[in-house]
Design brief:
CATH class of the largest domain: Alpha Beta
Radius of gyration: 30 Å
Shape: globular
Distance between the termini: 20 Å
Structural class: alpha/beta
Mean pLDDT: 74
Low-confidence stretches: 1-9, 13-26, 237-284, 300-313, 380-386
Order of helices and strands: HEEHEEHEHEEEEEEHHHHH
Length: about 425
């Protein structure tokens, strides 16, 4: 699908092994060459060393903070259900050694839930649609993630089969996360070999956003109890007290009010020619207060005009442009329309006025509209209103009903 190696089949990967070998033999880069972004990243290692893979892992993993937020936002919507999605990013090569490494910058939610641990089935059903709908400029599918409500955080036999069959490239990986009130835990894995082969935890880098990396300190988002970081910049920021406000060149703390007080000059100040001499005493003081009162009246009039209490605006003044519609709102409407169309087709199918092919096309429209919606919807930030999350949960429930209805129809999946 792109030059980064996203194929159009149900297997996500780079160009074929033969093409990659030929590129390596000729000295040509299979992926764009770019230095490792380790200075603005935090290294996370598995806390249990016997489960960790050796440091000679063939491909380093970098996961952006906003991608971690997107995954957690998806999984926390149903913490007791087994959810699944795909990781979106780019593959690069180091300029020195030409070893590939992956940077994850986004996630695509899959509407189906994993039932009875059948993760391979969900991956097989949804991967082709995700690849088809992913714009090239947004990256490629570099891996997948799922929740683990049990908290075991181990690659199951079905997970192993899903990864080996659909994500065979050396830089692709699986992310398992469990979210509980006591905290979150997770792990990165690259299953390989025969079914039942051990899949140890992998180290990874958390790629920091700009506001989490400045002045020599780092503020990570990951707080998994089964991973730790050797980066001293992470622990320094937790131990240091709050920093005093930065003082600007003018001597005023950063963010301080710009109110300028009226200061009476001292006696040593030589008054310019236009300044009224002090010998006038109370007369000048009276005029000064009259001037201040007049200024207050003028300010009140200006404020009244500002608040719309003054004369109406001129008829020829242009009207403000209407606010632009958010892309997630448009995408959400498309999901609702696709669901409505599916239900109409399901009614025809139930009354034997429609065929399985028609029902399958309607299901495909729902899946594609949902994928567009997940790409357009930003992750919910802390403190945001719960209204968008509620709307998204309602759409997800409707999509789940569509999937369940299609399963009951007995028609083959598209």
């Amino acid at each position: 699908m792109t030059s980064d190696g996203l194929s159009g089949s149900s297997t996500a990967g780079d160009p074929s092994g033969a093409a990659g070998a030929a590129g390596a033999a000729s000295g040509l880069a299979r992926f764009p060459r770019q230095p490792l972004p380790t200075p603005q990243a935090v290294l996370w290692r598995p806390a249990v060393q016997e489960l960790a893979r050796p440091d000679d892992d063939p491909s380093l993993i970098f996961i952006a903070q906003h991608a971690i937020a997107a995954v957690e936002d998806h999984l926390v919507s149903a913490p007791h259900e087994a959810l699944l999605g795909f990781l979106v990013g780019r593959v690069f090569e180091t300029p020195e050694t030409a070893l590939p490494y992956v940077i994850v910058h986004g996630a695509v939610r899959v509407p189906q839930m994993i039932v009875n641990g059948a993760s391979e089935r969900v991956v097989a059903q949804a991967l082709a649609a995700a690849q088809r709908m992913l714009p090239p400029e947004d990256g490629v599918v570099v891996g997948w993630y799922r929740s683990d409500p049990t908290g075991v955080l181990r690659i199951s036999a079905d997970d192993h089969q899903a990864h080996v069959r659909h994500f065979p490239r050396s830089w692709q990986f699986a992310l398992l996360v469990t979210i509980r009130p006591s905290g979150a835990r997770g792990g990165c894995f690259r299953p390989a070999g025969e079914a039942g082969s051990p899949a140890p935890y992998l180290p990874f880098y958390e790629l920091l956003d700009a506001d989490s990396f400045r002045d020599g300190w780092k503020q990570p988002r990951v707080s998994w109890s089964n991973y730790w970081s050797p980066d001293p910049a992470v622990w320094r920021v937790r131990a240091e007290p709050a920093r005093p406000p930065r003082v600007t060149p003018s001597g005023r703390p950063s963010g301080a009010s710009r109110f300028i007080p009226i200061v009476e000059p001292d006696d040593d100040y030589e008054a310019p020619a236009w300044r009224v001499p002090r010998s006038r005493g109370s007369a000048w003081g009276t005029w000064r207060w009259w001037l201040l009162a007049a200024a207050a009246v003028v300010g009140s009039v200006a404020l009244g005009v500002r608040l719309g209490l003054g004369p109406p605006a001129r008829p020829e003044s242009p009207l403000p442009e209407p606010a632009a519609v958010a892309p997630e709102a448009t995408a959400g409407q498309a999901v609702q329309q696709a669901i409505t169309a599916y239900r109409q087709q399901a009614s025809l199918f139930a009354s034997r006025q429609g065929a399985c092919a028609d029902l399958a096309r309607a299901l495909t429209d729902v899946d594609e509209a949902w994928l567009r919606y997940t790409l357009a919807s930003p992750p919910a930030a802390a403190g945001d209103s719960t209204t968008p999350a509620t709307a998204q949960s309602g759409l997800a429930a409707d999509v789940d009903q569509v999937e369940a209805d299609f399963e009951r129809s007995g028609c083959p999946r598209p």
